[in-house]
Write a structure and sequence with these properties.
single chain, 401 residues, Rossmann fold, TIM Barrel, 2 domains, 5-stranded parallel beta sheet, binds iron/sulfur cluster
């Protein structure tokens, strides 16, 4: 860490990329008492801390002292490093990648419920795992303290993995605890139930993901058919409410509409959602849904035709079985999930953020294991071995975007 402090001494720091990794790095700087952050550079995300790539180039042409740049965008990695080259900025000396410094990210389920049953999520396609569970606040704080102590370079904490965090009426205090520690915070919601949006907006959280799969009720209802229209479809009106509260309270939360693509919703629904996200100045991330959790995917790879039919795998844009055939013998080092640590509401450690079944737990209490030991322990677990054998994570990487 001292190295970055030394490298950036007496120079302003700019973060190239204002989405999740950029936000993670911003908090990383604050946690390490590095206060010379100047702005983010991003053409898609506009807020009071962000300038466009063109403005940044102008700045570089005119400035007396070059800033120290952090590339914090996986998809723009090449473009940003080319830009640094054009301005004769040298790797390490003048710029680095955020991943050179950032450590693991964490997903903590505060409870194990959701009001929906999405087809690509274990809440919708997996046997329920026992009774309702709620993480006590004191357990949560001890976990966050441990995380911070053992991984001060952590990327972020997401208060969800397989649950709808906004169903917890006391969510505010969990959010505030993470914010107090200067940790990048991520939240997700389906936005399809009644909750106090204004109260959450007022906390000015960094990143809010809205998980959805349709613009029109008729499309959305395909996979959420148990609810009546009048009661169930709040997503569009809640998105508008969200914008209204953000404006009124002058909050800069990055709202990211995560649109789960299936064969049946990539036409007019996606177009309408694009228009709406532009109108409301929200980010839109369409991605191909895949049949999670990993336990299911492994069964599909083992030719479980019953599950294939039950999950209606024909509706996924990429057939889950044909994808994996091209990705066997995947190497663990390249698994993009390997740096994510998922914790259940009881404080147990999941094998992986993609696994769900209670039998696939590495330890009953995350506080009883050294975080540096998790990776090796996970690698020996049968689920992780099977997952690699079938090349599942690599298949995900290939098909999701
Ligand atoms: S994807 Fe999210 S909204 Fe859908 S069932 Fe799972 S936890 Fe609930
Ligand atoms: S190989 Fe599979 S189970 Fe193991 S960390 Fe990666 S995604 Fe998770």
């Amino acid at each position: 860490m001292n190295t970055l402090k030394e490298l950036s001494e007496n120079r302003p720091i700019v973060i190239l990329g204002a989405k999740n990794t950029g936000i993670d790095f911003y908090h990383f700087l604050k946690r390490h008492n590095i206060h010379n952050f100047l702005f983010y550079v991003d053409n898609k995300i506009q807020n009071d801390k962000t300038v466009s790539i063109e403005s940044f180039c102008d700045y570089l042409r005119k400035c007396d002292k070059k800033p120290y740049a952090i590339i914090a965008s996986r998809f723009m990695m090449k473009d940003f490093s080319d830009l640094c080259d054009v301005f004769r900025m040298k790797y390490t000396e003048d710029y680095c990648k955020a991943t050179d410094y950032l450590g693991p990210s964490y997903q903590i389920d505060l409870h194990n419920r959701c009001n929906l049953k999405c087809p690509s999520c274990p809440q919708g396609n997996y046997t329920p795992q026992g009774k309702q569970e709620f993480m006590p606040f004191d357990k949560f704080t001890s976990i966050v303290d441990k995380i911070l102590l053992e991984t001060p370079n952590l990327s972020n904490i997401a208060l969800y993995c397989w649950s709808e965090p906004f169903l917890r009426t006391d969510l505010k205090k969990f959010i505030e605890y993470v914010q107090e520690k200067n940790i990048s915070l991520q939240l997700s919601t389906n936005l399809n139930h009644d909750f106090d949006i204004r109260q959450i907006v007022s906390l000015n959280i960094d990143y809010l993901r809205i998980s959805t799969s349709g613009y029109y009720f008729s499309t959305y209802n395909r996979d959420h058919p148990s609810r009546r229209e009048r009661e169930s479809y709040h997503v569009i009106s809640n998105l508008r409410e969200l914008r209204r509260h953000l404006d009124e309270l002058k909050c800069s939360t990055l709202v990211d509409i995560a649109f789960h693509k299936y064969k049946y919703n990539i036409g007019d629904d996606l177009e309408k959602m694009k228009l709406l996200s532009e109108e409301l100045h929200f980010y839109l991330t369409p991605f191909n849904a895949v049949p999670l959790p990993i336990e299911n995917y492994i069964r599909l790879c083992q030719n479980d035709t019953y599950l294939y039919k039950k999950m209606e795998c024909q509706k996924f844009i990429n057939d889950p079985i044909s994808i994996v055939r091209d990705h066997q013998n995947f190497k663990y080092e390249n698994c993009s999930f390997a740096n994510a640590i998922a914790i259940t509401p009881s404080g147990a450690l999941r094998v992986c953020c993609g696994s769900f079944d209670k039998k696939n737990i590495l330890t009953d209490d995350i506080c009883g294991i050294k975080i540096s030991d998790i990776r090796a322990t996970r690698e020996k677990h049968k689920l992780c071995k099977d997952c690699r054998r079938f090349g599942i994570p690599h298949a995900f990487e290939t098909v999701v975007s």
